[in-house]
Write a structure and sequence with these properties.
The structure is a homodimer. Chain A is mainly α. About 5% of the residues of chain A have low confidence. Chain A is elongated and about 55 Å long. In chain A, α1 crosses α3, α1 crosses α7 and α2 crosses α3. The first copy, chain A, is built from 7 helices and 2 strands, in the order αααββαααα. The N and C termini of chain A lie far apart (38 Å). Chains A and B meet through α1, α4, α6 and α7 of A and α1, α4, α6 and α7 of B. Chain A binds a DNA duplex through α3.
Chain lengths: 152, 152
Amino acid sequence: MKLSTKGRYGLRALIDLARYSESEAVPICSIASRQGISERYLEQLMALLKKAGLVKSIRGASGGYVLARKAEEISVGDVLRALEGSLEPVKCAAFYSEEGCAASDSCVTKYVWQKINESINETVDKMMLDELVKESKALNPCGSFEGSVCGS
Amino acid sequence: MKLSTKGRYGLRALIDLARYSESEAVPICSIASRQGISERYLEQLMALLKKAGLVKSIRGASGGYVLARKAEEISVGDVLRALEGSLEPVKCAAFYSEEGCAASDSCVTKYVWQKINESINETVDKMMLDELVKESKALNPCGSFEGSVCGS
DNA sequence: AGAAATCCTAGTAAAATGCTGGGGATTATA
DNA sequence: TATAATCCCCAGCATTTTACTAGGATTTCT
C-alpha cells in the first residue's frame, strides 16, 4: 500500500507549479531544482499530468507549464490518479468473466477492497490544490528563489 | 497503492480459518486447497499472522491453526497491517533528523499522507472478521468440503 | 515407528520501480 | 535568421520488490 515516487514527487511538483505559475509559465528545470527532483524524471511526471488534463505546456524558449484549471478545481485525487493510475487497493474487475469467481470468499474481500477504495477517494477528492498552496506559503513564506535561473 | 498478494491471500485465508476453526484446528493444506493458494506460500503468511498474535498454531499431526482471539475482536486492519506492514501510503518519519526537511513543500504533502493514512485505518479498523465470515456463509452456504482431506 | 503437521531459512525468476540518456521539435528572443 | 531554451518521445537499464519454490528440521498424534 505504498505510493510510488511518481505520486510523491508529482504532487510536490504540482503544488510548486501552482504556487509559481501565477504570473508566467514555469519550466521543468526550476521546479526540479526547487524540489530536488531529477529533471528527466520530472519530465515524465509532467507528461502524465498533461495527459490527464491537469497542466498545459508551452513549448519553446521561455515556455514551461501552467495549470490547466484553477488550483481550487484540482483535487489531490486528480493528481494522484493521474500519476499512479487508479488508487483502488485491489483490482478485481473481470473476475467473474474469467474465473467465474473461483474462490468463494473472494467476493467477501471484494467488499473490503471497495470500502477501502471509497474511503481513499473520498479523502483525496476533498483536498484541493489551493489549500495546499496556502499551507506551503505559510510554512515557507519566502519562496525559494523566485524566478530561479535554470541552466546554472 | 496496490495491496500485494500477502494482503489479498492472507485476508481470505483468515476468513477461511475463522469459518472452519470453530470445532478444530485447521491445517494449512486445507485452507490452501479451498482458497487456491500455494501451501508453501501460505505457510509464510500464517507465520506473519502468528507473529502479530492473530492466530495460534498447534504443531504435530492433526495440528493446524486457530484464531488467537474471537473473530469479532480481529479487524481487517489488524490482518492487513500484520501482512503488509504499516498501511500508510508514504513513510516520512526520520525526515527531519536525516535531511533536515530538505524540500520545503514536503511538509505540506506530509499532511496529505497523514489524512490518507487516517482514512484507510479508520475504514479497515471498523470492519471485523466475524462480519466477513457471516457474509462468506451467506454467499457460499454449503462450505466447500467441510473437513477437507489434505494429502490428496 | 511413521505420518501429519508446523517451523525456518534460503534461493530465484519475473515484474515493477526509478531513474538516465539521446536526440528531435518548437518557439521566444537577440 | 541564429541561437538557445524549452518541451517531447522513446529506449535502456540497474535496483528493488514480489511471489513464489525448495529443502530440510522439529513436533506430536496415532
